[in-house]
Design a protein that fits this description.
Blueprint: E1 3-11, E2 15-24, E3 31-33, E4 45-48, E5 51-52, E6 59-62, E7 67-70, E8 81-88, E9 93-96, E10 101-110, E11 117-123, E12 126-134, E13 139-141, E14 147-149, E15 154-159, E16 164-173
Antiparallel strand pairs: 1-16, 2-8, 3-7, 4-5, 4-8, 6-7, 9-15, 10-13, 10-14, 10-16, 11-12, 11-15
């Protein structure tokens, strides 16, 4: 069993992202990933060297993950900046097990610049943490020991109304 990790950004409201620096072209790499996932349909605009690109002609995107793939002939040239504007929607599913899964660790980092963030984490509706307050800039462990998930179990997490947090989950699958 190999150790895996997933990092998820938690927000309660959709985020409007403008001018995100997605990466820099090298003339060969066709794949780039947005910082936030769950891109709202119709909200994404991608630019290469400040020139707007056309969806399905120049690139494709997986809205749920934020993965952008440039088509042949549209791969960003060497040193051209790839930027994006989009709206990221809210999805509280952090991990859906596809087989028996053992959670080894769960850490949450408060990314809010002004306030403590309250975080809720649950597994199939059973609370692992409710209203766990995490100070500005701090990281906290959510549970101790191992948590076993079966196929189709879902780990969900959310941050307080205006809070922003990152959740890092370490796990292995059988």
């Amino acid at each position: 069993m190999a150790l895996k990790r997933v990092l998820k950004h938690l927000t309660m409201a959709p985020l409007t992202i403008t001018g995100e620096e997605v990466g820099t072209g090298d003339g060969a790499n066709a794949e780039f990933t947005l910082e936030y996932s769950n891109v709202q349909d119709g909200s994404l605009t991608v630019y290469v060297d400040e020139v707007e690109q056309t969806l399905t002609t120049d690139y494709t995107v997986v809205l749920s993950t934020g993965a952008i793939t440039f088509e042949a002939g549209s791969i960003p040239p060497n040193e051209d900046a790839v930027t994006a504007d989009y709206i990221s929607g809210y999805d509280d599913t952090v991990l859906k097990a596809t087989s028996k899964t053992v959670l080894i660790g769960c850490q949450v980092t408060n990314k809010d610049s002004a306030d403590a963030v309250a975080v809720d984490v649950s597994l199939n509706g059973f609370s692992l943490a409710t209203g766990r307050s995490i100070p500005v800039g701090a990281t906290a462990g959510i549970f101790e020991g191992k948590v076993v998930m079966d196929t189709d179990d879902e780990l969900r997490a959310s941050a307080s109304d205006d809070g922003m947090a990152d959740i890092l989950l370490s796990y292995s699958e059988e």
